[in-house]
Amino acid sequence: MRRIGIRFRLAVAFLGFSAIVIALLWILQVVFLNDVYKAIKTDSVRRSAARMNGMSDEEMASFAEEISASYGICTTVYDGEMNEVVRVHAGGPCLVHSLRPASAAVLYEAVEEDRSGYMESYLSAEEIQKILERLDASRGIFRFFEEYGSRRYGPSGSADPYDCFLRCQTVTGEDGSVRFISMSAVIVPVDATVLTIRFEMIIISIFLILVSIILSFVLSRRIAKPLVQLNTASKELPKGRFDPEGIRGDREIMELSETLATASEEINKVETLRRELIANVSHDLRTPLTLITGYSEVMRDLPGENTPENLQIVIDETRRLSDLVTDLLDLSKMEAGMDQLKLERLDLVDLVRGIMHRYEKLTENDGIILTFRTDAESCFVKADAVKLNQALYNLINNAVNYCGADKTVIVSLSVREGIARLDVIDHGEGISREKLKDIWDRYYRVDKTHTQARVGTGLGLSIVKEVLLLHQANYGVESEPGKGSDFWFEIPLSPEN
Questions:
Q1: What integer is the mean pLDDT of 225-247?
Q2: Contact indicator for 368, 358 with CB cutoff of 8 Å
Q3: What pTM was estimated for this model as a whole?
Q4: Using H for helix, E for strand and C for coil, what is the string for the chain?
Q5: 161: Cβ contacts below 8 Å, ≥ 6 apart
Q6: Which of 188, 189, 251, 491 is the most exposed place for a label (fewest CB within 10 A)?
Q7: Which of 70-79, 318-327, 472-481 has the lowest mean pLDDT?
Q8: Phi/psi zone of residue 270: left (φ > 0), alpha (ψ -120 to 50 degrees), beta?
Q9: Is the four-CA dihedral 289, 294, 299, 301 of positive or negative sign?
Q10: Whole-angstrom Cα distance, residue 485 to residue 426?
Q11: Which residues pair with 489 in a beta bridge?
């Protein structure tokens, strides 16, 4: 099944985001506008009444003028004798200014009896109309509206009924005297405003949808185009070909392009190594096999050729083949993580001396001078004896092959700060800095003249690297052309048990 493309996902994401924004705007600005307006209006009355606590009469009058202009709140303040101290009218009919003194006194007594210290009521237009009719008919002390009688409540006596919020509260004046505050605010219906906003919301919704479609197209094209180009170019990656030319994008896209280009170079390098490996291994296998076959046929067909010398050549070439195959298998097992260490506490001094002793015959036959230097009588480490032997043999063999004209190889063992360091030093022609990073690679070796690097079955240093990695040991090489090389590794000392 074909998966959904990034362009389609981006388009859906932008349209979905726009739909959520539009829905929120419609809900808040159209559906709940009346409720939000009502909540804000009533809250402004509550907060204004609370702020009057502790004010002087002059401050209350000034504050009442301020909230009247800002919020349309009508305010009346009475002293303890129910004398009017402050009277600010926001305009139009209101409950506060329709109260008779007797009605205000009854409300004051009710507030005093209430433990909360205030009373408030939200009256709908229908409730106000019923109160007006009842009070007008009874001519009682609770007749809130003296001027408008039984007419329906609205600004300037209009026929449109409006809701109203009333709050009565006692506060303490600046001089500690009691003040009775009554505040009311007309809750004007916002139906006309809703109709206006609804029309504007239709325009805004259409605009947002169009912008979302355009943005999704532009951004998806900007983001998806380089990804499509990368995908097309990376299809050639298994063949070692990757052309980043023409790919342009943001930082992450360009970093991915550079990573794929590097991968392409590594694939080409591995492919080159593979071809060279097949060629060189074939050559290294063919030479001993040819000698074995040739000498065997000579010893079979010619009388007197079945000599110990010819037989020794067959044996040596057979061992050469065996060593080559063993090195290949050992390296493959170590790189695959299949070779497990058999750790034991061993003396590195004795281990190196034993290897040096086995090289004595080579020293005699080829004139190689092997020198072992150490100040330590013993140096115990925790390691796999077989594998560490293998690594030391390969390091010394490498130094012997490249020892130079003086034919001198120095093996140095030193101990400092709980670390044993072993150096294998030759006085050969050295290795240039640009080639040092490659010498640990499988099948890489430098010829004796150091004039060129070639790929072959040089597995020795690769095996050394894998053995040291298994032991979690530090290793490296220091070399300078014309002055020789120093291959070293460091391994922690093993505490006494």
A1: 72
A2: no
A3: 0.44
A4: CCCCCHHHHHHHHHHHHHHHHHHHHHHHHHHCHHHHHHHHHHHHHHHHHHHCCCCCHHHHHHHHHHHHHHHCEEEEEECCCCCEEEEECCCCCCCHHHCCHHHHHHHHHHHHHCCCCEEEEEECHHHHHHHHHHHHHHCCCCCCCCCCCCCCCCHHHCCCCCEEEEEEEEEECCCCCEEEEEEEEEECCCHHHHHHHHHHHHHHHHHHHHHHHHHHHHHHHHHHHHHHHHHHHHCCHHHCCCCCCCCCCCHHHHHHHHHHHHHHHHHHHHHHHHHHHHHHHHHHHHHHHHHHHHHHHHHHHCCCCCCHHHHHHHHHHHHHHHHHHHHHHHHHHHHCCCCCCCCEEEEHHHHHHHHHHHCHHHHHHHCCEEEEEECCCCCEEEECHHHHHHHHHHHHHHHHHCCCCCCEEEEEEEEECCEEEEEEEECCCCCCHHHHCCCCCCCEEECCCCCCEEECCCCHHHHHHHHHHHCCCEEEEEEECCCEEEEEEEEEECCCC
A5: 125, 126, 128, 129, 152, 153, 154
A6: 251
A7: 318-327
A8: alpha
A9: positive
A10: 6
A11: 422, 475
Continuous segment of H or E residues that includes residue 373? strand 369-374
> Where do the domains of the chain lie, and which CATH numbers do they carry?
74-188 (no CATH), 251-335 (1.10.287.130), 344-492 (3.30.565.10)
Q: Each residue of 248-259: pLDDT tens digit?
A: 666 777 777 777
pLDDT at 362 over 90: no
Reported as type and span, the H/E element at residue 84 is strand 84-88
